[in-house]
Write a structure and sequence with these properties.
Layout lengths: L8 E10 L7 E11 L4 E5 L6 H9 L6 E10 L2 E2 L5 H5 L6 E4 L3 H4 L6 H11 L5 H14 L16 H12 L6 E5 L7 H18 L2 E5 L3 H7 L2 E6 L2 E7 H6 L4 H8 L39 H5 L5 E2 L5 E2 L5 E2 L4 E2 L9 E2 L1
Parallel strand pairs: 3-8, 3-9, 6-7, 7-8
Antiparallel strand pairs: 1-2, 1-4, 4-5, 9-10, 10-14, 11-14, 11-15, 12-13
Helix pairs in contact: 4-5, 4-6, 5-6, 6-7
Length: 342
C-alpha cells in the first residue's frame, strides 16, 4: 500500500450552498477542511443532512443546478479543481477520481447491460480501444467477484450485493487514484456488507487507492478507516486518526455519537442519546450549530461559532505554505484555552 507524507487531495475551507425558491439559501457546507493520503481511507460521519454527500459532490463538481460552491479550494495533486473549466474537470472525473454513488439499486442504468456501463467510461476517456476495453471489463468484473460471463446481463438480473460490486467495478474502470464511496453498504444485509467492505480493502491494498467513505456506521469507520472527519450542520466538528477520535473524543457531539454506539466491552453502560434534531440549514443558529443539543454548552456557544483548532499536533506547512491536517482537531469553545488555531 502506497503511503506518502504529502496529501493527494486537500480540501480547504470549502463552502457550498443551495438556492431555494423562496427564502435564504441553505448553507450545506461551511469552512470544511480535510486531507486524503494515497493508500489511506478517510471516513466522513455524521447524521443525515450534515453535508457528507454534498462534500463529495462539491469536490467532483457534480452539484445539482441549485447548488454552488461559494468559497474554498480543492487541491488534487497540487491542482485546484475549483479553478478548472468544466471541460478540464471532465479529465479528472473517473480517470483520477471516481465515485460509488449511494444506492446501487438506482445508480445503474436499467436499460443498459452491466458490461456496457463499465466500458463506457474507458471509451469516453479514450484509454483503450474497444477490444482492449472489453478485456478490461472482464478483468474488473472478476476483480470484484462477478463472473465475467454475467457482464452481458442487465442490472435487474443482479442481486443487491452484485449491483454494488458492479458499481465498484465501474468506478475502478479508469484506474482512478481517489475513490469516493457514498454509503457503499446501504440496503445490504450484514453478510454482504462485510463482503463489500473486505472487497474495498483488498482493492485498496492491490491498487494503492485513496478512499473517502461516507457512512453513518461508526463500526464501519473503526474497521476500515485510517482517519475520520465528524461533521455536524455542514461543518467539521472533529477530525483526526480513528485512534485519536475514538479513544479521546473532544467534541461533545463526537462523545455522544460514540456513547450511543453499543460497546460489548462495557455492557452495563447505558447508551446515550442526543435530544432534538439537527438545525435547518437555511435557519442556522448564530453560534455553535450543536449548541441547542449540547450537554456541555456554555453561554459563549450561543453567541460565536468556534473555529477548528489543533489539539495536539499543529498543522504542518507545505512548501506553498498550505497547511495540511496531520493531528487531532476539534471545533469547540471548551478546547480553545491554549490550542493552536488552524
Amino acid at each position: 500500500m502506497t503511503r506518502d507524507d504529502t496529501p493527494l487531495l486537500s480540501v480547504r475551507h470549502l463552502s457550498t450552498e443551495f438556492l431555494g425558491l423562496d427564502g435564504p439559501a441553505a448553507r450545506a457546507l461551511e469552512d470544511v477542511s480535510f486531507d486524503v493520503f494515497a493508500g489511506r481511507t478517510v471516513g466522513l460521519v455524521g447524521e443525515s443532512g450534515c453535508g457528507k454527500t454534498t462534500a463529495l459532490l462539491s469536490i467532483l463538481r457534480l452539484l445539482p443546478a441549485s447548488g454552488r460552491i461559494t468559497a474554498g479550494r480543492v487541491l488534487f495533486d497540487g491542482t485546484d479543481l475549483l479553478s478548472l473549466s468544466e471541460r478540464e474537470m471532465r479529465r479528472y472525473r473517473w480517470k483520477e477520481m471516481a465515485i460509488v454513488f449511494q444506492g446501487a439499486m438506482n445508480a445503474l442504468n436499467p436499460v443498459m447491460r452491466v458490461d456496457e456501463q463499465i466500458r463506457e467510461g474507458i471509451l469516453l476517456h479514450r484509454l483503450l480501444d474497444v477490444e482492449a476495453a472489453n478485456r478490461r471489463v472482464d478483468e474488473l468484473l472478476e476483480l470484484v467477484g462477478i463472473p465475467s460471463a454475467r457482464g452481458n446481463q442487465y442490472p435487474h438480473q443482479f442481486s443487491g450485493g452484485m449491483r454494488q460490486r458492479a458499481m465498484i467495478a465501474m468506478a475502478l474502470a479508469c484506474r482512478p487514484r481517489v475513490l469516493f464511496a457514498d454509503e457503499p453498504t446501504t440496503a445490504l444485509d450484514v453478510m454482504i456488507q462485510a463482503q463489500v467492505l473486505e472487497l474495498l480493502k483488498s482493492i485498496q491494498t492491490e491498487l494503492g487507492l485513496a478512499i473517502v467513505m461516507v457512512t453513518h456506521d461508526l463500526g464501519v469507520v473503526a474497521e476500515v478507516c485510517d482517519s475520520v472527519v465528524v461533521m455536524y450542520g455542514g461543518k467539521v466538528a472533529e477530525s483526526g486518526t480513528c485512534d485519536q477520535v475514538y479513544n479521546d473524543p473532544q467534541h461533545p457531539y463526537t462523545q455522544r455519537l460514540l456513547q450511543s454506539f453499543p460497546d460489548l466491552q462495557r455492557r452495563s453502560q447505558d447508551l446515550a442519546s442526543i435530544p432534538g434534531t439537527p438545525p435547518r440549514l437555511s435557519e442556522l443558529p448564530p453560534g455553535c450549530r450543536f449548541e441547542p443539543r449540547c450537554h456541555a454548552r456554555i453561554p459563549l456557544c450561543r453567541q460565536v461559532g468556534p473555529p477548528l483548532v489543533a489539539l495536539h499536533t499543529p498543522a504542518v506547512a507545505r512548501p506553498d505554505e498550505t497547511p495540511y491536517l496531520t493531528g487531532h482537531y476539534a471545533a469547540c469553545h471548551l478546547r480553545l484555552g491554549e490550542e493552536v488555531r488552524l
